[in-house]
Design brief:
single chain, 270 residues, alpha+beta, four-stranded antiparallel sheet, 7 helices, 27% helix
Amino acid sequence: MDVFAIKKNGKPSLLNIDNFEELTKKRFPYYQYGTDKKLKCYAVCPECGNPIHIINLYGAEMIQNQTGIIATYAKHTRGKVSGFEFWNPYDKEDCSLYNPTPLGNTEIKHSDEYSEELKELIENNKRNVFKNIREVVSINLSTQIINRLYDSFMNSNSYTYKAVTKYNIPYAMLYYQQSISLYGQYIVKGIFGDLLSDQINEKSRFFKVENTGEIVKNVTGYRTINMMFKQFKATGNEKTITMEIYETDEEDRVYTILKEKISLESYIYR
């Protein structure tokens, strides 16, 4: 996980060295020495309140087997930790940050209270969620489209799914949708946006990206270009979903333009 708190039911913060040092002030029990006399860093899971071990805050404590990447992240401890009073293995097992349900799963949460809290969080942060969705896809989706995504997500009660948490709202709102039309939308310049533009211009039969970033047709007749999200994957501490852009011709034949994995980062809303 890439979020932490310093007390049970405390406010979550993104996990990075600056936030961690500032909020903990390098005090015990967040900083302590193990039996091996090595410095270990701990905090609290903002979801279940159990202690979490901060990995790779300083140096290469652990290297991911799959990718070889040295990344800072947190994981739940196996048991009690000195200085942290709360420890509940049952809460840990039910925690969405310890045992995440894959996006795409439609199993309903056990807690109606959590679902209502999540609904209120989304409603109170609507503008920020819209902003973050546009950032994720590097496309300045129109107000009409983004409102349709929101209405569909909320009216379908998708926030009640176990897979939807306080920290993955933009991704969940994109995932639990039908395909999204990109015709007439504007791609935002940047590393990912430039990749999208290049792929459409190179591989599309029917569309191109103007210098302004607008996606337009370069043929006559009925054609569509759409975006969808699928294939949630969790490998080690990394979670990804696949963004696919495809087009259709007048006979509804499908041509894939791009498939790109997007790494899920936590978004914190107050």
